[in-house]
Amino acid sequence: MNIKELKQFLPYAMKTKVAVMVHGLHGIGKSQTIKQFADEQGMQFIDRRLSQMESGDLLGLPSLEGGLTSFFTPDWLPQDPNSKGILFLDEINRARRDVLQGVFQLVLDRQLGSYKLPEGWSVISAINPNTDDYDVTNVFDEALLDRFLHVKLNPTEDEYVSYLRTQSSVDQDMVSFLQARPELIENTKLNNFSLEVKPSRRSWYKAAELYKMGVPDNLVLEGIGGLVGATNVSMFLAWLEENETKPFKAEEILNEKTQQFLTLIHSNNFEEFTKNLPQ
Asked: Helix (H, G, I), strand (E, B), or coil: what is residue 143?
């Protein structure tokens, strides 16, 4: 998805309460795009770099009272039950294993221990791809990956140039140069990484919820594909088209009144049939 498509798609994903993971190269504006979206929607935005956190930063420090242990809620977690916002978890594949265990519960159950994320908040994460070009930790297992809807962010050159045009601090001659030579903006070879998404019963359930919300046609393949895989969504769309073109059965074509007449005829109740004939 490009930036415009991601912003168009996020409201649908957020309504299903599914956590979104944005995959993309460094420096393409993953976190800035999510921050802009939150600002445009009038929502709060909390950005946490998981690579800099320990498990205590998620769960809070323990407290012993009356022989029972409880945990103080970290001050960076949203407290107002009526607030709305995005909890942005960056660099998740650079996090320690003990931190990831806390992320498990946060992205699926929307809580950490006794803390519950307010209803109006959504969880979004961002990572660099797990390729030889990045020093990331390959700690993902299927259970964690399955908790996210995966999106590959690939901004267009026009989106980048348009953004630079609005920045008074940059030289516009250089912007014009990049507009004329867009192939120089970044190393396009790095963006050839594939995004493989494997389905599960849980992800199909979320996909069905998302599709029922009326996701725009141009976002269905990549958006819902981020839950169950683009290939599976393609097969679903082909199945829909095939079944929509199949001829209707006779009973599906007949109107309700005609079906009633046929029922009376089959029951040999001709007197009742005559009464129901249209005048």
From this structure: helix
Q: What pLDDT, on the 0 to 100 scale, is given for residue 30? A: 92
* Residues contacting 51, CB < 8 A, separation 6+: 90, 91, 94, 95
Q: What CA–CA distance (Å, rounded) separates 132 from 117?
A: 35
Residue with tokens 């809070």: 60
Alpha-carbon gap, residue 255 to 248, rounded angstroms: 13
Closest CA to 155 of 10, 21, 24: 24
Which secondary-structure segment (H or E) carries 6?
Answer: helix 3-15
42-51, 173-182, 204-213, 248-257: the lowest-pLDDT one: 248-257
Single-letter residue type at 173: D
Beta bridge partners of 115: 112
pLDDT band at 279 (very low <50, low <70, confident <90, very high): low
DSSP state of 251: H
Crossing angle for the helix pair 217-228 and 230-244, to the nearest 10 degrees: 130
Cα 34 from chain centroid (whole Å): 12
SS3 151: strand
Query: Using one digit for the tens of pLDDT, what is the confidence trace for 43-96?
Result: 999 999 888 888 777 877 777 777 787 777 888 899 999 999 999 998 887 888
Question: Using CA atoms in the order 241, 246, 250, 254, what is the torsion angle rounded to 10 degrees?
Answer: 30
CA distance 77 to 84: 12
Q: How far apart are CA 225 and CA 207, in angstroms?
A: 8
Contact 149, 227 (CB under 8 A): yes
Amino acid at 39: D
